[in-house]
Amino acid sequence: GDCFGKEALFHEAVRTMTVSASRHGGQLWAVPKNVFHHIAVQAHMRAMHDIKKMMRRIPLFRENNLTSEDIESLAELVEIHKLTRGYVLCEKGYDLDFFLLVRKGTVELSRTLSTSTTTATDATISDGIEEKEEEETMSLKHGQCVGLGCLLPPNNDVDSGVTLDAGYERLTSIAISSNSATCILLSKSDFTRVVGACSKLKN
């Protein structure tokens, strides 16, 4: 299972060592550089086609003024991450500063809700208010997203189609709940570079 030559596939590097067969010989599996590049380009094109298709289905993008050129430019700027179970993308209490779109797997959103209940000894006398915390979770799967709110100007709440209410994105933890998940991430700065200062989007 060992290998060598990875650098040669990506860079025009001069080989720095001599490779020779051992006394007992062996079998090798080789990939020519031009074949590897062809496979990599085809895989990238398939990924971009899938990403653009999913982005066009997002209501905020579809119903506003984003052009096909905008979507193409955004697709070229996204980061594709394959993450393992339990990986945390955002902790509770932190503002979400990126847009996340699920390509494969399941991403779990969770937040802690504080609820107040009044305790009383009889129907007329109140003993006080008791604070309780409840954990609320929801799952995102293929084509679902979170983080649209960070792309918009302040005080412009938006419904991404999966959040439970305005402000959910600011209070939630985001983590991988399936064995692995492929997530598409887009930063607010990259989005603004393409679309402008959110001028094309309206709620």
Nearest-integer average pLDDT: 78
The tally of strands reads: 8
Question: Major beta sheet, specifics?
Answer: 4 strands, antiparallel
Q: Indicate the percent of residues in helices.
A: 25-40%
Question: Rg to the nearest angstrom?
Answer: 24 Å
Q: How big a fraction of the residues is strand?
A: 25-35%
Short description:
With 203 residues, the protein is of the alpha+beta class. It is built from six helices and eight strands.
Explain what you see:
Strands 1-8-3-6 form a four-stranded antiparallel β-sheet. It has a four-stranded antiparallel β-sheet with strand order 2-7-4-5. The relative contact order is 0.20. The chain has helices at 6-10, 33-56, 59-62, 68-77, 168-171, 188-195, and strands at residues 79-84, 88-90, 98-104, 107-120, 126-140, 145-146, 173-176, 180-187. It is built from six helices and eight strands. The chain has 203 residues and is an alpha+beta fold. α2 crosses α4.
Question: Which properties best describe this structure?
Answer:
4-stranded antiparallel beta sheet, 203 residues, 8 strands, alpha+beta
Topology:
Layout: H1 6-10, H2 33-56, H3 59-62, H4 68-77, E1 79-84, E2 88-90, E3 98-104, E4 107-120, E5 126-140, E6 145-146, H5 168-171, E7 173-176, E8 180-187, H6 188-195
Antiparallel strand pairs: 1-8, 2-7, 3-6, 3-8, 4-5, 4-7
